[in-house]
Amino acid sequence: MDLSTRYLGLSLRNPLVASASPLSRNADGVRRLADAGVGAVVLYSLFEEQLRREAEHDERMATQGSESYAESLSYFPEGLENGGGGHRYLRLVERAAAAVDIPVIASLNASTPGSWARYARSMQDTGAAAIEVNIYHLPGDPGPTVLDGAAVEQRHLDVLAAVKAATTVPVAVKLSPYFSATADMAHRLDAAAADGLVLFNRFLQPDIDPETLTTVRTVTLSTPADTRLPLTWIALLCARIRASLAASTGVEHAADVAKYLLAGADVVQSASALLRHGPEYAGVLLNGLCDWMNRKGFHTLNEVRGLLAAPDQDFEARERADYVWALRKANNGSYDTY
Ligand SMILES: Cc1cc2nc3c(=O)[nH]c(=O)nc-3n(C[C@H](O)[C@H](O)[C@H](O)COP(=O)(O)O)c2cc1C
């Protein structure tokens, strides 16, 4: 079965992409993912906070007159050769890109456009095939500096513009699921030349333990129930924007990969399932996808992709009808349970 496809203008051997997670924290991890069969790997993110600490460190080193490492490379931004997280990240990009023959996508975790755009350039120069900008920002500050919706959206566009200006490789934007008008945001990013949109990131949502009276800050792995929101938006955006669409969240079985492709995803990313079962589980997902395609008589991904995207005509009327129909069904006692 030929699963080859395109994402962000890159050729991929298949549409399963390892999304940013601790599995890609070192070159060995990236190699294991590639050996397991994924079409591309997104490295874990370099965090903006880390860059800030880096800059402070650089400044301290500069004022102390410290010497830089002899091995410093010209494509490392000024200051990076002094070591630290940014330096290690670029080394990882370089090693990972050399270790595997699939695209390695570097990830920047940014909340504001800023000097870190230079890191995007360095990621490209060290071998990243593309940059995924993970705009993780919770505009929850209740103080006078609280951002309104327009400012949050503009921030996304500014971050994209800064990274695009600094690089020539494709740039994908990984979005939060929480916009008042997701389609509008997607269209504006598309118009601003985003090469791809990743729908969606998962926010850390702290829990509360009423016994210990503490806040529990932990990452909860996703379940297939979490596919519904990205599935909805991918079905709505398929063929309506030029940028590639990557589905992210909730993949556990090959059927979840199939659903996202049917909705219109160009690629399907997985983190939780690969963390839960190990990188080799990528092979299980890919075999399952091939089995499903065989059973359904599909020969290529083009036959699958977008088959169940939202239809063009009478969209609002249809959406309202679906909503009313689903509620009527639920009122009659018919609903899904997980
Ligand atoms: C432990 C863990 C670490 C993650 N680290 C990152 C990261 O560094 N950058 C990023 O953009 N997303 C990160 N993510 C989010 C995943 O890439 C993915 O978008 C999200 O988990 C939804 O996909 P999933 O349901 O397949 O896990 C992380 C997720 C997990 C579970």
Would you write up a description of this structure?
- This protein has 338 residues and is α/β, with parallel strands linked by helices.
- The chain has one domain: Alpha-Beta Barrel (TIM Barrel), CATH 3.20.20.
- 42% of the residues lie in helices and 16% in strands.
- The protein has 12 helices and 12 strands.
- The protein has helices at residues 27-36, 48-64, 85-99, 117-125, 149-166, 182-191, 228-237, 254-263, 272-277, 281-296, 301-304, 315-331, and strands at 5-7, 10-12, 16-18, 40-47, 104-110, 130-135, 171-175, 196-199, 207-209, 214-216, 244-248, 267-270.
- Helix 5 (149-166) links the parallel strand 6 (130-135) and strand 7 (171-175).
- The two termini are 32 Å apart.
- Residues 67-76 have low confidence and may be disordered.
- The structure holds flavin mononucleotide.
